[in-house]
Amino acid sequence: MEPRDDRSAESDAVARPDRGRDRDAEGKARNARPRDGLGRPLPYGAPGVPRAPEGVVRTAGASVDEAQELLRAGRPFHAHEVFEDAWKSGPAEQRALWRGLAQTAVGLTHAARGNTTGGARLLRRGADEVERWAASATPPAPGGLDTGGVVAWARALADRVDADGQVTDAAAQAPELRARR
After folding, report:
1. Which residues does residue 126 pair with via DSSP β-bridges, in sequence order?
2. At residue 105, does pLDDT exceed 90?
3. What's the 3-state SS for the chain?
4. d(CA 73, CA 57)
C-alpha cells in the first residue's frame, strides 16, 4: 500500500487558469482544491485534511482497515474513495460489494452534510447492494467484512435520518466493518 498523500498541502495537480480546470502533469482533470473532513471543497490555499490517494491497489484487508480508520475519524467521504479503489481494482466478483460499501459511505457523508433525504437513500441503496452480493457469494467476505452488520447499520441509520431529519455526526455514527470478537 502506498503512503497517504496530502493534496491539500502539496499536489501534483495545478490550477490552470487558461483552461479553467486543475490538471495533473499528464493533463488529466484533477481538482486540486483542499477538502474538509466531509469532502466539501474549500477555497484554494485553505488548510484541508489529507485526502486518500486515488487509484491505490490494496488488499481487501488493507482496504477495510483504512476505510474503518477514516470512518472512525468522521471522514466517510474519504472512506468512500478507498472503497471505490477496491471496487475498480478488485476481482470482478467483488465489485458489487465494494460499490455498495462506497454507497453507504457516501450516504453517511450526505447525512453528515445535512442532505438527509439523499443520505438515507444512498444508505439504503448501498445496503441493498451489499445484501445482494452477500446472498450470492460464498463466505467469508473479503477483508473480514461483516456484511450483515454493515447492512443492519446502514438501514438503521437511514431510518433514524429519515425520522429525525437531523444532521448526523459522522464519527459517532460510523459503522464497524468487522464483527467484534
Report:
1. none
2. yes
3. CCCCCCCCCCCCCEEECCCCEEECCCCCECCCCCECCCCCECCCCCCCCCCCCCCCCCCHHHHHHHHHHHHHCCCHHHHHHHHHHHHHHCCHHHHHHHHHHHHHHHHHHHHHHCCHHHHHHHHHHHHHHHHHHHHHCCCCCHHHCCHHHHHHHHHHHHHHHHHHCCCCCCCCCCCCCCCCC
4. 22
Beta-carbon-side half-sphere exposure of residue 41 (alpha carbons within 13 Å): 6
pLDDT value at residue 21: 73
Supply 19's cell numbers. 483552461
Residue 160, all three cell numbers: 433514524
Residue 50 pLDDT exceeds 80: yes
Q: Cell numbers 490494496 correspond to what residue?
A: 58
pLDDT of residue 4: 37
Q: What angle do CA 76, 78, 84 make, to 5 degrees?
A: 100
CB-based contacts of 179, cutoff 8 Å, min separation 6: 146, 149
- Pairwise CA distance, residues 101 & 86, whole Å: 10
Mean confidence (pLDDT) of the chain? 87
The residues with which 22 forms a beta bridge, in sequence order, are 15
Global pTM value: 0.82
**Contact call for residues 105 and 77 (beta carbons, < 8 A):** yes
